[in-house]
Write a structure and sequence with these properties.
This protein is mainly beta. Helices cover about 5% and strands about 45% of the residues. It folds into two domains: about 10-430, Neuraminidase, CATH 2.120.10.80; about 450-530, Sandwich (Immunoglobulin-like), CATH 2.60.40.2150.
């Protein structure tokens, strides 16, 4: 075992501001296990405290060249069994399995969900031997997790513990597979066939599902059957992939799913800022809340406090359009890697708010990582952690493993993606109660309070500013360049409550790669730095 020396209780302590009091703190403690590869965009199941890790990629961010992007050399062609307590790892090659099973087990960005002993894996982007090409696979696989863990540990036969069926609805990558009661929900994602390239050249085809597909699974351990149900379709709000979707408990105690952020908006090559609520009756876009941080898929944790009817969802690092720099929210439309750790909280009245944590990830980490919960942690039936049941001063919630580790924020231009890697580090995540650290509660980033964002007008100099007002007030808008020189200023005598869209149009914006936008509302300043 290779131990990483860490500044544990100083550098890695994050805490949370509640509405009236701080409900808990989090601490992460890093370590590594000899023999465990770095991995990203994988799937996992668990049994008796051990993990079964399958699929994903051994490298970092995909490369720009079509022949090199998602090459087969980066495929994970092994099954890993990990004991995080004993800090041991076992592995087995998938080469003894049928070729169609091998293809899906070496794919990336699969959707997955564990139900009892069975890990269900759906779709994923991988190599198809029949067509000698890369494509989104159309299979649903059932894996007997306890049996495979035993087989890997004992170097015994694997074939009996994998079953697979095909259907065109399963050809999805970059979405999520969740469950409400007895029904499975395949949320968002896309069908991507061919070789990726960033210039839109005809080396691939791509089709978003724009849907939440629903089905039930009947599985007796031998026969695997699926009953497809009517789903939900929305080409505006469900046109998203590579995002975070988490099970939720609503204030009334019912189960649901929230689809957070993701990419890409149909009319803008930028992440979504709204979220979509999903339950058994349908979907609803939440347009009153904007998520600024943690836009791409990253490790995340759902916790519900029944006593206060608050649903907390915590996100660790990843990729986002916004990040904080010395108290100023930065909007970078290149959508960089970030160190941000943030939570989104839904209160008892259903109002959602986002809170930036004062301590960040120790590097540009988190994208395509997973949070693997401790199996004996108290949860609701949909795996949301019962916050009120965690009564100890310190509780191990689980582990963050893998994901992309990037040396810088923006590495995609040129050959920068070659400098990233799949992280080998595991982070224990502890929850502390009773404000043990004595650190004062942090304030949320002020720009979040009004949801301030700026969208460029394609091919022109103007900027569109969007923000929310809770009541009718005067607003002053100031735009400066990166050197503090004034580019635009305007006083609005009174703007009505609700969503505001203002056009900033001036020739002085021309050739300004960075602008600083300040709104003054009732003597309070809201500042946003925009990298155009």
């Amino acid at each position: 075992m290779k131990r990483i020396v860490a500044l544990m209780l100083t550098f890695f302590m994050f805490h949370y501001s509640g509405y009236n009091q701080q409900p808990f703190e989090l601490v992460i403690e890093p370590f590594q296990i000899n023999g465990l590869n770095g991995l990203q965009a994988y799937a996992f199941g668990q049994s008796q405290g051990k993990w079964l890790v399958v699929g994903g990629r051994l490298d970092g961010l995909h490369k720009r060249q079509p022949f090199a992007s998602f090459d087969t050399l980066g495929n994970n062609n092994k099954l890993f069994v990990v004991d995080p307590i004993a800090e041991q790892v076992w592995s087995a090659s998938i080469s003894s399995l049928p070729i169609d099973i091998q293809e899906q087990l070496s794919a990336t960005n699969m959707e997955f969900h564990q139900d009892g002993p069975y890990l269900y894996i759906l779709g994923g982007y991988g190599y198809d031997h029949a067509s000698s090409s890369k494509k989104t696979l159309d299979n649903l696989m059932a894996i007997d997790v306890p049996a495979v863990i035993n087989a890997v540990q004992n170097n015994s036969i694997l074939v009996p513990y994998f079953r697979q069926i095909a259907h065109s609805d399963f050809a999805v990558t970059g979405g999520h597979l969740k469950k409400i009661n007895h029904t499975y929900y395949l949320l968002g994602g896309n069908k991507f066939d061919g070789d990726y390239n960033p210039m839109g050249m005809p080396t691939y085809t791509q089709q978003y599902t724009n849907a939440v597909r629903r089905f039930t699974i009947t599985d007796d351990g031998v026969n695997l059957t699926v009953n497809h149900l009517s789903g939900f379709y929305d080409s505006t709000n469900l046109h998203r992939r590579d995002y975070n979707a988490l099970a939720q408990i609503r204030p009334d105690g019912s189960e649901g799913i929230t689809m957070f952020s993701g990419v890409f908006q149909p009319v803008l090559n930028l992440p979504y800022l709204n979220c979509v609520e999903v339950d058994s009756t349908g979907i609803q876009s939440n347009t009153t809340f904007q998520q600024h941080y943690n836009h791409y898929h990253c490790a995340s944790i759902p916790l519900y406090a029944a006593s206060s009817q608050e649903m907390h969802t915590v996100f660790f690092g990843g990729i986002a359009q916004f990040y904080d720099s010395a108290g100023v929210m930065v909007q970078d439309n290149d959508v960089p890697f970030v160190k941000t750790i943030a939570r989104v909280t839904r209160n008892a009245t259903g109002i959602m708010s986002e809170h930036l944590l004062p301590i960040s990830m120790p590097g540009y980490l988190g994208s395509a990582s997973e949070f693997i919960p401790v199996q004996d942690i108290p949860t609701y039936s949909n795996e949301v952690i019962k916050l009120d049941s965690l009564t100890n001063d310190s509780t191990l919630l689980g582990y963050i493993y893998g994901g992309i580790s990037s040396p810088n924020k923006n590495i995609f231009a040129g050959n920068g993606s070659a400098t990233s890697s799949a992280s080998q580090v595991i982070y224990k995540v502890f929850l502390l109660k009773n404000n043990l650290s004595g650190i004062p509660n942090p304030a949320s980033n002020s720009s979040n309070e009004i949801g301030l964002v700026a969208y460029p007008v394609p091919g022109k100099n103007p900027l569109n500013l969007q923000f929310h007002l809770t009541k009718s007030v005067p607003v002053k808008v100031i735009v400066q360049n990166q050197f503090g020189e004034m580019l635009f200023t305007r006083n609005y005598r009174e703007l009505k409550a609700g969503l505001q869209t203002l056009l900033v149009e001036t020739d002085q914006l021309k050739n300004e790669p960075v602008v600083l936008i300040t709104l003054i509302i009732q003597h309070k300043k809201y500042t946003l730095k925009v990298i155009r």
